[in-house]
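Hi support team,

I submitted a single chain yesterday and got back a structure, but I'm not sure I'm reading the token output correctly. Could someone confirm the output below corresponds to the sequence I sent? I've pasted both exactly as they appear in my results page.

Thanks,
R.
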Amino acid sequence: MTELPFANRAAAGRALAQKLDAREYANPVVYALPRGGVPVALEIARKLAAPMDLLLVRKIGVPRHEELAAGSIVDGEQPDIIVNDEIVHAAGMSKAAFHDAAARALKEIERRRELYLGDAKPIAAKGATAILVDDGIATGASMRAAIEAVRRREPKKVVVAVPVSSRDAAIEFSELADAFVCVAAPADFGAVGYYYRDFSQLTDEEVIALMRQARALGSEPQLEAK
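Hi R., thanks for writing in. Yes, this is the structure output for that exact sequence:
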């Protein structure tokens, strides 16, 4: 039985990797939501001998009300735009305004991807078991967008994997994904950071170094013969 709190994100990743390994998913590709998901995902990719990539999610804010998410943009071979129709309608946001906000979000995603991965190409999810990894879920707005975007890319399965989660999020993501794998989902959740002794924010330099290690594991999933 895993003792909480985890020492750090790497320790949490090793505990989560054991659970995923036992499920023997075919053709896994590990996608980390940065920054906190990266050290967790690296331990999973090592255990599963799977390729690993980043999945950058950026909110598309309503002009002058940036706290409201009119949608999200998720990077990949072809970045996907997820529209929150309810917010767009309520805010009276025009198509032109949404397009401009989405373009700004995409520019920032492209900047961050180049910073973290250089010119490395995104790893395709088609036909693979796409394992989406973060260091925990409290509300999960970014993970919802990630699931919707990755679904469009025709994976064999979408698996959400996190070390810790609120009970409500565990129920929700068990329904949204093909599988939800979690080490602990306490009833009295609080916040993700409560379950780590070291929950310090990663620097860009640390993410870059971790992704160099990930790239050394391999870059393409081994797909089953048809």
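A quick pointer for reading it: The chain is about 40% helix and 20% strand. Let us know if anything else looks off.

Best,
Support desk
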